[in-house]
């Protein structure tokens, strides 16, 4: 009986995580979707792993919707050639109605591979 309950909890947890990003955009707030001019959007490439935002675990997505204000984003990097051993913590201040992108660089000019990530405002670059 306990095994069945644990299995149901695991299945439900997976479904909730997938549902949270089912549209491709994870919302960091509950309730109805807010107008675009009241929220901020953060997006990233598939090689970037957003792990935590403001201490909250993030499901595997490529875009998120959150409230304006100060945020801390913990990210890692993973591609077929390289996987980061250390995460990066990025602090940024988001403005309402703006779009942001996590950008990264990889330097493999030496035996060690170095990577870095930061957030840029792309509001007026992609419209």
The total strand number stands at: 9
Q: Reading side by side through the largest sheet, how are the strands ordered? A: 1-5-2-8-9
The N- to C-terminal Cα distance equals 54 Å
Number of domains: 1
Strand residue percentage:
35-45%
Total number of helices: 1
Outline the structure in words.
This protein is mostly beta strands and 127 residues long. It has one domain (2-121). It has one helix at residues 2-20; strands at residues 26-27, 40-43, 48-53, 56-57, 63-66, 69-77, 88-94, 99-107, 114-121. The longest helix has 19 residues, at 2-20. The radius of gyration is 17 Å and the shape is flat.
Question: TL;DR of this structure?
Answer:
The protein is mainly beta and 127 residues long.
Please name the defining characteristics of this protein:
127 residues, mainly beta, five-stranded mixed beta sheet, four-stranded antiparallel beta sheet, 9 strands, 15% helix, flat
């Amino acid at each position: 009986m306990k095994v069945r309950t644990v299995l149901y909890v695991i299945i439900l947890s997976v479904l909730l995580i997938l549902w949270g990003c089912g549209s491709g955009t994870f919302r960091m707030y509950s309730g109805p979707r807010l107008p675009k001019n009241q929220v901020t959007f953060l997006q990233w490439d598939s090689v970037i792993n957003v792990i935590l935002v403001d201490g909250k675990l993030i499901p595997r997505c490529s875009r998120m919707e959150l409230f304006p204000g100060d945020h801390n984003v913990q990210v890692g990097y993973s591609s077929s050639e390289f996987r980061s051993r250390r995460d990066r913590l990025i602090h940024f201040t988001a403005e309402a109605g703006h779009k942001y992108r996590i950008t990264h660089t990889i330097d493999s000019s030496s035996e060690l591979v170095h990577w870095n990530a930061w957030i840029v405002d792309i509001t007026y670059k992609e419209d």
